[in-house]
Amino acid sequence: MxxxxxxxxxxxxxxxxxxxxxLPLLEAIVNAIQAIDARRGDSATPGRINVRVxxxxxxxxxxxxxxxxxxxxxxxxxxxxxxxxxxxxxxNMSSFETLDSDFKSHLGCRGVGRLLWLKAFDKVTVRSxxxxxxxxxxxxQFRFSVxxxxxxxxxxxxxxxxxxxxILDGFKKAFQQNAPxxxxxxxxxxxxxxxxxxxxxxxxxxxxxxxxxESVSLADLMGEFVESAMTSSKIEVKGQKFDxxxxxxxxxxxxxxxxxxxxxxxRVVIEENLSGKVPGLHGKLADKAASEFVYACYLTSDxxxxxxxxxxxxxxxxxxxxxxxxIDDLSLDDIREVVLEEVRTILKAPLESAREQGKKRVHEFVxxxxxxxxxxLAKIEERGITVDPSIKDQDLELQLHRxxxxxxxxxxxxxxxxxxxxxxxxxxxxxxxxxxxxxTVSEINQSxxxxxxxxxxxxxxxxxxxxxxxxxxxxxxxxxxxSLIVPMRTESSEHAAxxxxxxxxxxxxxxxxxxxxxKTLKSMPITGSESTKEPDIVAxxxxxxxxxxxxxxxxxxxxxxxxxxxRPMRKDATEDKNPIQQCLDYVKRIxxxxxxxxxxxxxxxxxxxxxxxxxxADLTEKMIERCEISNLRPTHDGLGYFGxxxxxxxxxxxxxxxxxxxxxxxxxxxxxxxxGLPS
Length: 679
Known about the structure:
Elements: H1 7-12, H2 23-37, E1 48-55, E2 76-83, H3 90-96, H4 113-120, E3 121-131, E4 137-145, E5 149-152, E6 163-171, H5 173-176, H6 183-193, H7 195-199, E7 206-210, E8 215-217, H8 218-225, E9 226-229, E10 233-237, E11 240-250, E12 259-264, E13 267-273, E14 285-287, E15 290-300, H9 302-307, H10 332-346, H11 348-368, H12 377-382, H13 393-420, H14 430-466, H15 478-485, E16 490-491, E17 514-517, E18 537-542, E19 558-565, H16 579-593, E20 611-616, H17 621-629, E21 633-634, E22 640-645, E23 650-655, H18 657-675
Parallel strand pairs: 1-7, 12-15, 19-20, 20-23
Antiparallel strand pairs: 1-2, 2-6, 3-4, 3-6, 4-5, 7-8, 9-11, 10-11, 11-15, 12-13, 14-15, 16-17, 17-18, 18-19, 21-22, 22-23
Helix pairs in contact: 2-4, 13-14, 14-18
């Protein structure tokens, strides 16, 4: 019985990820390189490969003047790859017509490259000239498609020497949309995929990639990519031998991370980012003998050649899973582990320098930007944390925070174990473990306190920015400042105890029985009022109990705090919008309507609970006039007014925004200085 093969079925079952949209083109170029390598007698003459990018020539609608920036490039519809290699000889043609041919298996070829052509393109046309056994130049041409398979179309003419032109036509949209668009980007991907040919003894043919507007020679990219070659290394893993080609690549935006290239059949199959996989190996490296460079390794082996998948996008090699028992077969993890150990040796001096720079970066960040990690920095460094010296602040913060979470989690588990032993006969090292645990807890507590103080510094910095005019001379609206001090339209039950920043105004305001922000008097349980007026902030605190214990459980009477916030440098306020009078009116309504506390307990009848009115507003001429009419005295620094209103039985303080920031900063200066934060 004769078995037959369906080309359509083979193409359908051939895998080509969209992320590898240019792989069919790369296969055509590698075939061209191998055809040039196979030439007899003139190997000293470098071959030539010309790749032409074909774009859609369909006219586009003129929709008016184009916007700023570069005009969009027309879609790619195909490629032509021309070479001056041996051409489609009788053996090559026979191999082409045989699926899964092993004609070039000694080169690592699997005979599936042409299947990838039909996976991404509608049809392929081949024109070629070759020398027969007698040395006579002959030509052939044929079409190749899923529907009609191989269609011979007579002899090709126009050739004066052997060579081949492969035309890939009808680039399918799914792959077209995922492929690089510009000639430069295509050239770079081709170069990286075929770099082995450029680095081998004898080098590569002259490869040019062009369209109607641009042309790039891959030889020019060699100097742009590669700083210099390093020593080649040979490693052995479970009896299998591997070659490592180590390169110094020039540090560019494209070449910014160290990479391990897993190669097979002289092609790059997998590109692996090595950042962080060796301590100190992140981005750019440098040593005393060279400028900055990025490390790259090209790994080759017969073992990899034999196990590359047909589509050349992965290997049929297991990748050991953490926690699973070791296997006798060689895994990717086994290979990677030995490669990384060799990298540590090769890059010993640059890695030591990078680790020192990374350590310096961490210390500088902790000192200036994140003092909360200072108490635990020694423990974090004991864990071997290494960072890229050029890491962004937010990324470094995330790394340090992850380390802090691990330390806290381990301390919690350690504490549970120690407390479980408390009632039993303690082990010999119990006292030592207890001391270590208590020391860690103390450091964590110091870190929490440092984070709290650092947060205050950040809040004051933000407030300082909000009160300044922008580039157009405009100031922030009062609601932006209001929300920073306390979330708007909320009550005590709607945010955590530390969810507001009332400490900016007065530290005592952090301890209250009831707090309302931008809520109507009618909606407040402490008033019983029907008024729909909205004071910016209202707070009550019970008397006759320590401030730190004022939880709303004791009576007889509460204190009342009202805060009004006005827009920075506001000059349009009229007399009926006098913020001082507004505050006194709110106090009067609260006193008249007070019926229960926030916890529902009745308030004894009294109309004289102590009241404190804070007005946050810049001291415009109108505001100063109102302060003087209300018999308020200027503060010593001239940034505010204060006084007591006898008839309303209320303390009144008017603070300019500069005075507010200055006062809050001065109250916290000792803490800021202790942490090394600028104050």
